[in-house]
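hey team, just a heads up i'm posting the complex here instead of the shared drive bc the drive is being weird again. everything in one block, sequence lines first with there labels, then the predicted structure for the whole assembly after. its two chains so it's a bit long, scroll down
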Amino acid sequence: MQATFFPGVGVNAADMSDFEAVTSRVRERVDPTTAERERLRDAADRLVSRVEDALADLDVDADVVRVGSTARGTWVRGDRDIDVFVRFDADLPREDLERLGLAVGNRVLPDGHEEYAEHPYVKGSFEGYDVDLVPCYRVADATKIQSAVDRTPFHNAYLVERLTEDLAADVRLFKQFLKGIGAYGSDLRTRGFSGYLTELLVLEYGGFEEALDAAANWHPQVVLDPEDHGTREFDDPLVVIDPTDPERNVAAVVSPEQVARVQHYARRLLADPREDVFFPEEPEPLTPADVERHLARRGTSALAVRFETPDLVEDQLYPQLRRSREGLVRGLEDAGFDVLRSAAWADDVSILFVELASGTLPAIERHDGPPVHVEEHATGFYDAYANEDVYGPFIDGDRYVVERERETRTAVAFADERLPEVALGARVASLVEDGEYDVLADEEVAVLAEPFGAAFARYFDPTP
Amino acid sequence: MQATFFPGVGVNAADMSDFEAVTSRVRERVDPTTAERERLRDAADRLVSRVEDALADLDVDADVVRVGSTARGTWVRGDRDIDVFVRFDADLPREDLERLGLAVGNRVLPDGHEEYAEHPYVKGSFEGYDVDLVPCYRVADATKIQSAVDRTPFHNAYLVERLTEDLAADVRLFKQFLKGIGAYGSDLRTRGFSGYLTELLVLEYGGFEEALDAAANWHPQVVLDPEDHGTREFDDPLVVIDPTDPERNVAAVVSPEQVARVQHYARRLLADPREDVFFPEEPEPLTPADVERHLARRGTSALAVRFETPDLVEDQLYPQLRRSREGLVRGLEDAGFDVLRSAAWADDVSILFVELASGTLPAIERHDGPPVHVEEHATGFYDAYANEDVYGPFIDGDRYVVERERETRTAVAFADERLPEVALGARVASLVEDGEYDVLADEEVAVLAEPFGAAFARYFDPTP
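-- predicted structure starts here --
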């Protein structure tokens, strides 16, 4: 690889590989500045004091732990999250924990609001930072947890103990890489890599480049067990046994597609290091004319089912959209349509988008019956169709065949009439039951460039 | 079953089942009349004398055997075939057998012409009968034959010895049944049941109704071995070991479809005896307008490849047409088209006819690559397409996928441009190589109602 001189990088670029040169420039962009670190540390200290004061005022027996990336030095420049956990005694009744947790939260973050994970907590703002103030139980070890959030302090302790400055810096690189390729986040829209998982992988492999090297060569199922204490089997393509819980796969949410994406970009980045993998340009949103032109060029038939986006959090919305899209695709395929690709996008409205080889099928469909020699079935088949308005039953090879009238000849008719038959996400299903959706086909879908122009851009230029 | 009175049948109809009543009427139509039998016997006797005289004149040591259905009393009324075999000594050189055989033939049938099976023979007319005069070798048993025709006298002797009057009558019924359903004949167009096979089945099962009962319950592979001496395994759906040759399957040519057809009609005839199974009406040929109306009703796309029928005997022509049709269908399917049904018909012109769900496909085709984790293949796939004018490679599930330009978007373009790529019968292939064919699509195929109106009628009303 050719060494290149990059002024202003602060390292003698002539000594660096392309990979080092690129990552060095990325580090310059993702490492928090000294001023940022100091501001954050000071703000966090004041926040923790406020929480401790509130606990004292309320005469509550609990301690305070900072967790998350800003507690471990693994945050990417510009992140403004401070996570504070308040640990209550393990035998405090659940309703007391919830009540006291909210009381402390509301006192510390008077402008905050309540959110709900496994139990309620307070989210608010403090000196310009986004703060989560979460009550949990103080348990002996992570296998004794009463609620998923009780695990977080153990994760924090495990990582704080092991992440050196250099490893923390590599975690930032890896996070930015995952963000750049769209694989960062364990939310159910992304189904990608959580911060904790990213940190474990850098720890396990010993650095960012080492993690890329490993990922480039993964043969799923990949199983990592840093503490060598796993007790269960998993079906997931990537398994990273939680060092604080032998029964938990930290990577359970990661989809096969995200594993493949990481492998793809790991190889690309190692073979041809480029900064834009970390900081990709947003695609130019397509106009309606662009969408029409793409469809015409592809010679396909488009179908969109449009409805008002259900009022759900993203972790409920996106699984329902995915399920609905898969249900629509399977329904169309079962009805004889050839689906090339599909997508589901949400804004104020949501759409299930399907691209078909053809939106129209013949009036008849071929239906193969049993071999003639399977007497009972064969006779049953023949008798069932002999007096129906079908072509046949006739004999093809050793089987009976009929060509019968197709129930649904167009994809639009399928979407108009048979959508309630398919497996849909719950809220989408109830909209569909009530007829609260409309169907667009072919050039009609072009209007969806507003608001989905960027999504269409990625759809029609999908090269990763 | 309800007994019915059929006047004129010559049996007390009140005592008969529907099945007996129907077959009794069929017997009336297929049994040769007494006058016919006598005329045939007399003519055959005179013919054999003429052959013996010719052998004496030529001073040749050979004997004369009458074979075939008219020799065994199993012919169907109106058949006018007399088969005479001249058996020469087994050590006569082949060229002498051929020379002497033709000499005798030409002397007995001065208006005849030479035909060629495994060796030449003379075909001609005698007192209004169609005569085959075939030279063969007189061998000790059928396993010692020097040519396939040497086997025939053994078949004849085997059957003459065993076929009673009643069984011979049932053979006639079975033959007419097979003729009626289109399954009679071991030629390579029909791929059905030969006369000899029909006779063996009636012998083996003990009658026509018994053979139908058996066929209705066949579970292919069906193996019959009347002499219990078979020494080989066969792949064919129906295996009847030749009583005169343990290594030969008499039913080798019977297609799975013809086995299924016999099973189907056997069940129908037993369940609902009808004379028209034996004597079906020819369908009314379709007009061009009929063909157009059918295609419009079916909503399909039609494609026909038309060429002058190669000058071949039927046993060569039809296998070549079948192979060509199968090659075209496979080629279209490999190119992404969905074929509903196909046919191949011959007259002065021949056509390969294909009915498609759609004659036009999208401009792009989806091409799935390897899973991303199969590093070498995956990287090879990515590199091969990364700079091509395709959509992708993108990641779908755990795989790379591209959508690339489809080579051939229409079935017509496939037939115009890519027909030489597919597996065709030899003579069809050379016509295609020379561009000596044309392609008709959709409503253009309607003109083929001339001369294929009857074939179209069966195609669009295929219920057996």
